[in-house]
Amino acid sequence: MDAHITLRVDGMDRPLTVDTRTTLLDALRDRLSVTAPKKGCDHGQCGSCTVLLNGRRVVSCLALAVAHDGADVTTAAGLADDGQPHPMQRAFVEHDGLQCGYCTPGQICSAVGMLAEAAEGSPSHVTGDLTARVTLDDEEVRERMSGNLCRCGAYGNIVTAIREVAAR
């Protein structure tokens, strides 16, 4: 069965017709030619398909497109502001937070979403004091980014890039 939906992708309304079983990732990549989110594991385990869905980070391979009709989807490509890279994108480049780059769009979206969660005071598994302001030390950043895997092992530089942006 097909459904007519509209997704607001990177600030632009994109109407499309999808089979009700189509994932958000497949709708973005195969139907709308939005290639920033990558298909890695297709099981929600690697994070390479992470996007911001209404401002929250999600692995798009596990989300059904029809469940998000009218949603605001931001990919790594949509984070730029008036042609200028997002601070997180700049930090990843400046700190070599990437090697092959396959996971990078998902890492960047996850990092942006994670900073918003931390700013809201959402604790993680390693947050010591649940009543205090969240402090994004290396352990906290690693825990919060643990759903995004990098086969190249650029984790040290990814953490440095995120902490730099968090400090601003």
Q: What is the topology?
A:
Elements lengths: L1 E8 L2 E8 L4 H8 L18 E4 L2 E4 L12 E3 L12 H8 L9 H16 L18 H7 L10 H13 L1
Parallel strand pairs: 1-5
Antiparallel strand pairs: 1-2, 3-4, 3-5
Helix pairs in contact: 2-5
Describe this structure in words.
The model has no long low-confidence stretch (mean pLDDT 95). Helix content is 31%, strand content 16%. It has helices spanning 24-31, 87-94, 104-119, 138-144, 155-167, and strands at 2-9, 12-19, 50-53, 56-59, 72-74. Helix 2 crosses helix 5 (155-167). A five-stranded mixed beta sheet has the order 2-1-5-3-4, with helices on both faces. By secondary structure, it is of the alpha+beta class.
Please provide a brief summary of the model:
The protein is α+β, with helices and mostly antiparallel strands and 168 residues long.
Question: What brief labels describe this structure?
Answer:
168 residues; alpha+beta; five-stranded mixed beta sheet; 31% helix; globular
Shape: globular
Broad structural category: alpha+beta
* Largest sheet properties: 5 strands, mixed
Overall mean pLDDT stands at 95
